[in-house]
Design brief:
The complex is a heterodimer of chains A (about 120) and B (about 110).
Chain A: E1 4-7, E2 10-13, E3 19-25, E4 31-37, E5 44-50, E6 56-57, E7 68-72, E8 75-80, E9 89-97, E10 103-106, E11 110-114
Parallel strand pairs in A: 2-11
Antiparallel strand pairs in A: 1-3, 3-8, 4-5, 4-9, 5-6, 7-8, 9-10, 9-11
Chain B: E1 5-7, E2 10-14, E3 19-24, E4 32-37, E5 44-49, E6 55-58, E7 61-65, E8 71-76, E9 85-92, E10 97-99, E11 103-108
Parallel strand pairs in B: 2-11
Antiparallel strand pairs in B: 1-3, 3-8, 4-5, 4-9, 6-7, 7-8, 9-10, 9-11
The chains are: A mainly beta (about 120), B mainly beta (about 110).
Chain lengths: ~120, ~110
């Protein structure tokens, strides 16, 4: 397993502003993952953050809106830029163990409300 | 199109009742996973089933992997309010986990 600390745990932000979410893992990992969970929904993968290279974004998500940093093997940030109320969601950081039958471990999430 | 179909999507039951939730696919998997996400928390891995027909028990929770490895079920006996949460079926592929849409369970005291 892995211990993943995410902060902030929640925030209320004004539209048009940006919020940076931090994710710290207790061990070195190659890839870190950022998910969005809209109210009452399941998880949608935003991007995969690799150390030393640009993040890989899923369809429907772009770097300008969700810039990601990955300065080392235990830390990553996700920024939600120029926020609108539609960005109100839970944002989750994850790491995965195994190369086949991969299993996911999550931080507690950041509950973002944009007003 | 969802790779993993979960049903029901919502379930509200009284404390003490039994329930089963399902995870189905047309694909064959080497394994399937179940996660539970409690309100205000991230999902937590409950179990991974790897053998067709396998049954695993975790206290009042019973997980089964279909013989053909295309589906799985989660049965909860005598549900408790603490079982309330989102139950996610998932497939762990090569360096990536894919999640189903989830079953949102509410257990009413």
């Amino acid at each position: 397993s892995a211990v993943i600390s995410q902060k902030p745990s929640r925030d209320i932000c004004q539209r048009g502003t940006s919020l940076t979410i931090q994710c710290q893992v207790d061990s070195q990992v190659t890839m870190m993952f950022w998910y969005r969970q809209q109210p009452g929904q399941s998880l949608t993968l935003i991007a995969t953050a690799n150390q030393g290279s640009e993040a890989t974004y899923e369809s429907g998500f772009v770097i300008d809106k969700f810039p990601i940093s990955r300065p080392n093997l235990t830390f990553s940030t996700l920024t939600v830029s120029n926020m609108s109320p539609e960005d109100s969601s839970i944002y989750l950081c994850s790491v995965e163990r195994g190369t086949t039958n991969t299993e996911a471990f999550f931080g507690q999430g950041t509950r973002l409300t944009v007003v | 199109t969802q790779l993993l179909e979960q049903s029901p999507q919502f379930l509200s039951i009284q404390e003490g009742e039994n329930l089963t939730v399902y995870c189905n696919s047309s694909s064959v998997f080497s394994s399937l996973q179940w996660y539970r996400q409690e309100p205000g928390e991230g999902p937590v891995l409950l179990v991974t089933v790897v053998t067709g027909g396998e049954v695993k028990k975790l206290k009042r929770l019973t997980f089964q992997f279909g013989d053909a490895r295309k589906d799985s079920s989660l049965h909860i006996t005598a549900a408790q309010p603490g079982d309330t949460g989102l139950y996610l079926c998932a497939y762990g592929g090569y360096q990536k986990v894919t999640f189903g849409i989830g079953t949102k369970l509410q257990v009413i005291p």
